[in-house]
Amino acid sequence: MTQITRRNFLKVSAAGTATAILTGCGGERWVELVPYVVAPEEQLAGVPTYFASTCRQCPAGCGILVKIMNGRAVKIEGNPEHPVNRGRLCARGQAGLQLLYNPDRVPGAVEQSERGSRRYTPIAWNEAINRLYEGLNEAGSRVAIWLGTTTSGHLVDLFTLFADAIGAQPPVRYDLYAGYNGYNVLETASEGLLGTAALPAYDLANADVIFSFGADYLGTWLNATGYGVGFGQFRAQPYGKRGVFVQFEPRMSNSGASADRWVPVRPGDEALVAQALVRLIADEGVGPAERVEAARAAAADVDLEAAAASCHLTVAELAALARTFAEAQRPVALPGAALAGRDNALAAVAAVQTLNLIAGTIGQPGGLLPAQALGDAGLRPAVTSSYGDAQALVARMQAGEIDVLLVHGANPVYEMPPESGIVEALANVQTVVSFNPLVDETAVYADLILPDRVYLEGWGYEVVTPALGGLPVVSSQQPVVGPLHDVRATGDVLLTVARGLAGAAQALPWEDEVAFLRERITALPVGAFGGEGPDLQWARFQQFGGWWPAQAPQAELPDVEVGGVAPVAAPQYQGDEGEFPYHLHLFMNPLLGDGRGASMPWLQGSPDPMTTISWQTWVELNPVTADELGIQTGDVVRVTSPFGTVEAPAYVYPAIRPDTIALPLGQGHTDSGRYARDRGANPVRLLGGEPGDNGANLMWSNVRVKIERTGEQKSLARFETTVEEAADAHPPI
Amino acid sequence: MAEHKWTMIVDLDKCTGCQACVVACHAENNVPIASETEVVRGRGLHWIRIERYWEGEFPNVKAKFLPVFCQQCGSAPCEPVCPTYASYHSEQENLNIQVYNRCVGTRYCGNNCPYKVRYFNYRAPEFDAPLEQQLNPDVTVRGAGVMEKCTFCIQRIRRAAETANAEGRPIADGEVQPACVQACPSDALIFGDKYDPESRVARMTPHNRQFKLLEHLGTEPAVYYLKGGETHVGD
Amino acid sequence: MLETRTENAPFWEPTVPEDEVLAQQAAHHRDEYLLLDPRPPAEINALMLAAMRRTGPVFWLLVVGLGGMVAALFTTWVIQMFYGIGITGLNRSVMWGPYIVNLVYFIGIGHAGTFISAALRLMRYDFRRPIARAAETVTLFGLAMAALFPLIHVGRIWKIYYMFPIPNQRELWPNFRSALLWDATAITTYMIGSTLFMFVALIPDLAMIRDRTTGLRRKIYGAFALGWRGTEGEWHRLEVVSNILGFVIIPVMFSVHTIVSWDFAMAIQPGWHSTIFGPFFIIGALFSGVAAVILVMVIVRKGMRLGYFLRDEHFSAMGIFLMILAMAWVYFYFAEWITNWYGNLPMEVALQEMLTGPLAPFFYLMLFGNIIVPLGTLWSRRVRTSLPAMFVIALFVQIGMYIERVLIIPGMLSRNELPFNWVNYTPRWPELLITAGTFSFLAFLYIIWTRVVPIIPVWEVYEGQALQGRRRVGRAILPTRSDPH
Q1: Contact between B121 and C156 using a beta-carbon 8 Å cutoff
Q2: Which of A151, A369, B87, C445 is the Cys-Cys partner for A409 at CB 3.0 to 4.6 Å?
């Protein structure tokens, strides 16, 4: 052993110090560490399984793959094979797991002896089905069925057969998603234009100019994911063009934020601007000769000055936009929700579709694609009911003509304006049965809740509309996990009940819903994934997430003629301009949608793209308006329309017209689970009950409101900076 | 020498701000959701966030989206400041790793991160039963007092590496996709190994619109942003 | 002509000059200067012991009140451990708040003690003699309070041992590249050094008390007095040890606050990344420390009736000291911001706009407390010798320096390179309670301490008195000093 002398000690110390210095400041920037405490992310256990299915968070019908580990669904991903969404998935689609695992799901069949008491008694399924049967048996044909747009296609078909068999009116398929976006108006317009009632599918990927009239197609319009995929391709076009995208809307949506030009058009004047563009193409003679000719045939008398003024533009600037459209190779125009939400909606939508007609791209790449035939399988896209149909049903309920109301996938008490009288009407229905997995606002008025399996637990198919990707698609839905609770598929419940009902037994002969599904699917021609024989075809249908042909069928283009002059009357606003000085603009943010996202914490807690607000309802107003009214962000304001009032904190929003007030839909639930309950306000309360005069649509974009401070304050849950000075700071991009 | 250089490209021209990536990340990485009160207190927690900046005034106002997540810096300011090596640079993956087990919560890394992409668990995450059944078993659930951040979905990288290793082949381009990239509808996020010359990211860089966020700080981020807006014609 | 002392007369019996003028001057000196007003050591000891034994109702009220606040401090801390840092007002951008402010503040006030007793001792400034222990106590307890804050601050206190370089199964040492670890090392060193330094100087006084108590107390004091008998050799060794420790602790003191400043300066956070931070923090620390000592001096003199020891001359000297530090602080602050302002970098401009915008009340209060108040008043001897004035001035400096740290830590953190992430910080009750609790804890320990050890180092006082003399030059008598070294 070395003796430690003073000299040795100094040597060792020096060496130690040197080592310490070298290790501290050595040339190696990265040190390799293999410590005992390693990140568990580096140790993976188990292999996941993936099941293909269909998303039901909105009506679009995107294909999904659900990742299952240890019997639990842990992640939803887009199905890369699926022609609609090409492996991509929006925020709402991702959050489907929180519907499956929602803590507030109804765990089994329950009855509510006193409506609105929110006291539910569990009952056995046999008893529940018996009670449903008895109710239906007594009611005979005095039965109404109210479905939502996310009700699986097979259920819509089954319910339709059922209603037909018992002599009841066909199901009403209406919810706020359809009402706000004007599905019925768009379908009717498509029927008039292309001969098929289906939601319009635009080939954005191959367009080079997009004129969107208030269509938030990157947020919530028709199919945000599918159109998002198209937008990505539109921005990266192979032949060296970036694409020009112009958005006309009174309040900048997140689609508007992605636009090259955002034009703040006055609410209600979208159609006028579309017509002005046609007029300008005709007058200025820009673009190819056939377009000019078509424009001349279609151009109406338009006050160009007024149209330009309502866009904060000069006529010359508007003419430049017309030139951009006319001179593009494949321009496309999208009729947004605001058009379908005003009076005279059909004509307004038609005014925008006229631009597509003039472009001459219908049925061609970059244009409006006609719906594709599905063969003879009897499968066609489920048609949406209009708000007028829903209102008519409410009137029949009010009149006591309905004894049993079956509600699946819709939440009319939340989604219909109170002016429609829905709550009073429900009181006149003897038995209300809800099939919804959560106790929503409508289920509170139900006598029986027979919770359906949520879509990740249940079977189904969906004939996809709008049929993006140019293919007819039947998307498949299958259980990816075992049912979490003691819930029964509504299809099975219906088939069971039908056995005892005269007429229905013959019309619905299937043993269970799977037999029905199988029969329908195996009747389809052989699709992209082959499959000889029904067994293989059925298996492939589930394995690949649906059926679609390998190649787009040669569609027969309908003979589309550019119509004559179709003037659109100026919008009739609801509310006197003197008393209600501001336009109301409602919008869905891409998270909560029409309100069904509110029960999922991921969607509640993720920031709205434009305001970064989560968990709340807010009122957007222009800085100028806010200054005039002395309102600051965080001041609670009262917004009053001729029909109702909501209160919410104000958010000063730089990209909204000074004459417009905007509110997001989606909050203001009184039920629908702990995450949705008692949060924000439901701006549907501001709407009137009367359907539009042309299209029987929900009129939400022509309402006028007034706004006043309540004197209260509420901190907005903003993710963005709350420091005012940040607005003056230089952004990093 | 690291084998991979995992790299992300963010095409700002395609980002629509739709939040699909945000929710996908929450789902994949067990990221807790901040309650309303927490957000009001400035504690929103998202591993990937979409910053929105305004430009101009009405009617010529523009909004710009900027997705920001951990830039996996080559010279990361967060790494040297951690007293417990909870934040360190892994040589294998060439990523900035956060080892939650080692983290004592000094929050120094959070201060020193110029991108502010490190989030602190101010409270223990709550998953109301049965929401916890959704949790991804490949990813730790972080408790209170721990710093966390985007990992480029390292669990997916590991899984792909293990699969490729078992099959005796290199990881193919596109085999690894972080949850955000996978979800992004408009293909604004592109991910791959820059050391693989055939990968999409390697072929796309250098790009005529490319820049790195806060490049002047010399953090050598592994994220390239492609400038958006009207500034480019064609590519 | 040298005034001689009678061979056998003790130093506390100085001769009175026969000349009337000179006698007046001598009397004046006795009034003015502690060291020229010698009294018998026994009398001084008795004076000190009486002050230590005095515990009136005010004292007990303080003990109970401050003790309650200490209980609140620890209760809040336990609640915070249970619920997480989330109960504070910290947010996703401002991750360091009052806990780190308090860390810096308490280490800062801990600088004065060492500086006064070590540096002034080595430079032989006699006015430090009665102040030294009060100042060292501020150091000791300030450091103890500061040492609490890393523990309160971290998210997982139960894993704090990951930061210690101990052999472990994790096969992982702490990261010595982290400024936090330098900080921990420096603080620990400083704490050990200043405790030793204080203890060494305490030994003769502990022995003095040992000799004047009985029973258990005698045993305890005896144990700590290490068998001190007061022999020539012992005094000599005390002198040597004190000098060595003094020399050692001064660089440690400089290193501590430099390294504390590096916690910030090493980070690339705008407003923090500055080379001037090391010396600037040291000046700031001395500034707030000296002010803290002045506060303590006022309280001790009033509360313990120690007017004999703490005289105008001490307050005046400390006031001048404070004024010089205020000037140095202004210089550094000005140098820091003039370069930032002239450079006009966007982030630094944003910080200046923050300071003169939303944080303007705090910013101007800080400038008022740190510059206007001390520089505007301390030039006057009347102010410097007025106890209430000194108290108020020192309090302003404390407030100003505390605000300065608040502006640097949560203030600067609320601005960063990506303006989307600017989040302002507002404290919530736990930080406020823990901060108030820590100040109370310091005061609590302090008042207990004043009853346990002599807060005036009596031996230093009569050592000084013994070394002092007067020299007559013409018609004047000047104090003089016979230094054995």
Answers
A1: no
A2: A151
Partner residue facing A232 (CB), from B100, B187, B214: B187
C-alpha closest to that of C120 among C310, C338, C286: C286
CB nearest to B84's CB, from C93, C162, C418: C162
Residues A573-586 have pLDDT tens digits of 999 999 999 999 99
- Integer Cα distance of C62 and C111 in angstroms: 26
- Closest-CA distance of chain C to residue A25, Å: 8
CATH class of the structural domain A185-367: alpha beta
CB of A726 less than 8 A from some CB of C: yes
Q: Which domains does chain B have, with CATH numbers?
A: 6-226 (3.30.70.20)
Tens digit of each residue's pLDDT (9 = 90 or more) over A281-333? 999 998 899 999 999 988 888 899 999 999 999 999 999 999 999 999 999 99
What are B120's strand-pairing partners? B147
How far apart (Å, rounded) are the C-alpha atoms in residues A216 and A223?
Answer: 10
Chain B within 8 Å of C91 (Cβ-Cβ)? Answer: yes
Q: Which two tokens stand for residue A642?
A: 């001729």
Overall size of chain A counted in residues: 733
Residue A42 is predicted with a pLDDT of 63
Q: Which residue has the tokens 């609105």?
A: A116
Contact criterion met (CB < 8 Å) for B59 and A38: no
Residue A179 phi/psi, 5-degree rounding, is: -70, -45
Residues A582-729, CATH architecture:
Beta Barrel (2.40)
C417 interfaces chain B, CB cutoff of 8 Å: yes
Residues of chain B contacting A25 with CB distance shorter than 8 Å: none
pLDDT tens profile B147-198: 999 999 999 998 998 899 889 999 999 899 999 999 999 999 999 999 999 9
Task: Sketch the domain layout of chain A as residue ranges.
Answer: 185-367, 582-729
Beta bridge partners of B210: B226
SS3 content of chain B, % helix, strand, coil (to 5): 25, 20, 55
What is the nearest CA distance from A676 to chain C, expressed in angstroms? 24
Scan for tokens 């790449």, then name that residue: A365
Identify the CA nearest to C314 among candidates C179, C195, C456. Answer: C456
Identify the H or E element spanning C113: helix C98-114
B partners (3+ CB pairs within 8 A) are: A, C
Q: C79: which 2 tokens? A: 């609640």
Q: Which of A519, A520, A494, A524 is nearest to A408 (CA)?
A: A494
Answer whether B167 touches A (CB < 8 Å): no
Identify which of C170, C415, C422 has the shortest CB distance to residue A35: C170
**Backbone torsion region of residue C333, taken as left when φ is above 0, otherwise alpha when ψ lies between -120 and 50, otherwise beta:** alpha
pTM, to two decimals: 0.91
Chain B: residue whose CA lies nearest to C165: B84
Domains and CATH numbers, chain C: 92-164+178-426 (1.20.1630.10)
Distance CA B80, CA A28 (A): 12
Beta pairing class for A172-173 and A143-147? parallel
Calpha distance A498→A493 (Å, rounded): 8
Q: Is A322 helix (H, G, I), strand (E, B) or coil?
A: helix
Q: Note whether A637 and A650 are within 8 A (CB).
A: yes
Smallest Cβ distance to B28: which of A46, A75, A252? A75
In chain B, the residue whose alpha carbon lies closest to the alpha carbon of A219 is B18
Contact at CB, B23 and A94, closer than 8 angstroms: yes
SS3 A431: strand
Min Cα–Cα distance to chain C from A656, Å:
21
Query: Could C422 and A725 be called an inter-chain contact, meaning their C-beta atoms sit closer than 8 Å?
Result: yes
Sign of CA dihedral C83, C86, C89, C95: positive
A405 touches A390 (CB < 8 A): no
Which residue in A235, A224, A202 sits closest to A78, CA to CA?
Answer: A224
Q: Check if C299 contacts B (Cβ < 8 Å).
A: no
